[in-house]
């Protein structure tokens, strides 16, 4: 049960700038962002005795409004401002968290006319300098470094802090944050990230968090496919999926893709993977396809071969192209795609 707290009444928008240092802004309230913002806001409220205020923004206004309604249900009297653009959020929020799909969205939210950087440039140098930007999106390393350089020119501080742990980890507040930026930026970001995650790992300078994240997802993307292949093969050969999952999970094949995100309904009854909800929620196949592309691009740029990564990227591309319904479903739905393919073959 989440705690409840009576909040301070809404502060008139004309005074909003004066409250900027005590305002947290969250941009991008999708599957991950909505859970992260909920934990961040509720825990900050408790910690600050209600003296912090919040702003949110999503490209789909109804998504931001739904978040605020849910938050207000749990925190009666709460007032979280829904703002229309990232610039409006930056104008009144001293700390900003962005959780967007990928590179174009981050570029747009930070550098376009109604973005964060132009808004920071309109602030006093002191206000800009005291601003902390945390981007938790998984995006291209070079794009992230360019955006961070634009932010740095305003005097503000930025870290890349992509996450591992999925929607379940976001909801439970147990995400791992992989952080890139200066040591000072890392120290400033840590107490904020601690409200949303269990592990905060400093990976190095700007972009290093993303390098770590992309390498991790390269492993995950390949593993989820091979778990699907194995679960399918075992069943075809007469094994009960629950028995097979239990064997793998206690053997050398154990991995998160099998033990938590198992793609076969009923295989891990103690967990609640997306396959139990027809692959709704979780990590969209299109986002995994994006991450495999990020791995391929960065590997090409340094001349590292990715034979499995490239094959996995092709398989996710085939899933999205041949079964568009699975594009927005959890990437473990690659199992459903392979199962259909195997049925066709056996006909
Ligand atoms: P999502 O598509 O559910 O949410 C993204 C949100 O950003 C949407 O609500 C969208 O409307 C909003 N948005 C897009 N452009 C915007 C803009 N310019 N301004 C404001 N809002 C904008 O995606 P998600 O699953 O929450 O993933 C977010 C990021 O986290 C991605 O980079 C993804 O790769 C990464 N990630 C996701 C998971 C997961 O399990 N879903 C796990 C780890 C990392």
From TrEMBL:
BP term (GO), one: L-valine catabolic process
Which residue positions are annotated as catalytic?
Answer: 213
Report keywords, A-Z. Branched-chain amino acid catabolism, NAD, Oxidoreductase
Known InterPro entries for this protein? 3-OH-isobutyrate_DH-rel_CS, 6-PGluconate_DH-like_C_sf, 6PGD_dom2, 6PGDH_NADP-bd, HIBADH, HIBADH-like_NADP-bd, HIBADH-related, NAD(P)-bd_dom_sf
Keyword Oxidoreductase among UniProt keywords: yes
Task: Identify the residues that the record assigns to the 6-phosphogluconate dehydrogenase NADP-binding domain, covering every copy.
Answer: 24-204
Against Gene3D superfamilies, the record matches this protein to: N-(1-d-carboxylethyl)-l-norvaline Dehydrogenase, domain 2, NAD(P)-binding Rossmann-like Domain
Q: In which pathway does it act?
A: Amino-acid degradation; L-valine degradation
Q: What protein am I looking at?
A: 3-hydroxyisobutyrate dehydrogenase
Q: Which species does this protein come from?
A: Obba rivulosa
Q: What is the lineage of its organism?
A: Eukaryota, Fungi, Dikarya, Basidiomycota, Agaricomycotina
């Amino acid at each position: 049960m989440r705690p409840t707290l009576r909040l301070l009444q809404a502060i008139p928008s004309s005074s909003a700038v004066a409250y900027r240092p005590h305002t947290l802004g969250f941009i991008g309230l999708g599957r991950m962002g909505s859970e992260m913002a909920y934990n961040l806001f509720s825990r900050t409220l408790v910690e600050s005795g209600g003296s912090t205020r919040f702003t949110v923004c999503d490209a789909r206004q109804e998504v931001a409004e739904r978040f605020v309604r849910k938050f207000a249900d749990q925190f009666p009297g709460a007032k979280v401002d829904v703002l229309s653009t990232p610039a409006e959020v930056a104008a009144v929020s001293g700390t900003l968290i962005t959780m967007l799909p990928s590179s174009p969205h981050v570029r747009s939210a930070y550098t376009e006319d109604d973005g964060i950087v132009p808004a920071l440039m309109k602030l006093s140098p002191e206000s800009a300098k005291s601003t902390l930007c945390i981007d938790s999106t998984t995006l291209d390393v070079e794009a992230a470094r360019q955006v961070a350089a634009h932010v740095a020119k305003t005097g503000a501080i930025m870290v890349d802090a992509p996450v591992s742990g999925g929607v379940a980890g976001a909801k439970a507040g147990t995400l791992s944050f992989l952080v890139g930026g200066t040591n000072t930026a890392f120290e400033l970001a840590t107490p904020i990230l601690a409200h949303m995650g269990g592990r905060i790992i400093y990976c190095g300078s700007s972009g290093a968090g993303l390098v770590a994240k992309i390498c991790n997802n390269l492993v995950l993307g390949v593993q989820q496919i091979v778990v699907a292949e194995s679960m399918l093969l075992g069943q075809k050969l007469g094994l009960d999926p629950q028995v097979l999952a239990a064997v793998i999970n206690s053997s050398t094949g154990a991995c998160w893709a099998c033990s938590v995100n198992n793609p076969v309904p009923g295989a891990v009854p103690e967990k609640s993977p997306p396959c139990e909800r027809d692959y709704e929620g979780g990590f969209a196949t299109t986002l995994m396809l994006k991450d495999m592309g990020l791995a391929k691009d960065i590997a090409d740029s340094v001349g590292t071969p990715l034979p499995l990564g490239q094959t996995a990227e092709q398989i996710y591309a085939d899933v999205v192209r041949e079964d568009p319904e699975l594009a927005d479903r959890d990437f473990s739905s690659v199992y459903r795609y392979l199962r259909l393919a195997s049925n066709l073959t056996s006909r």
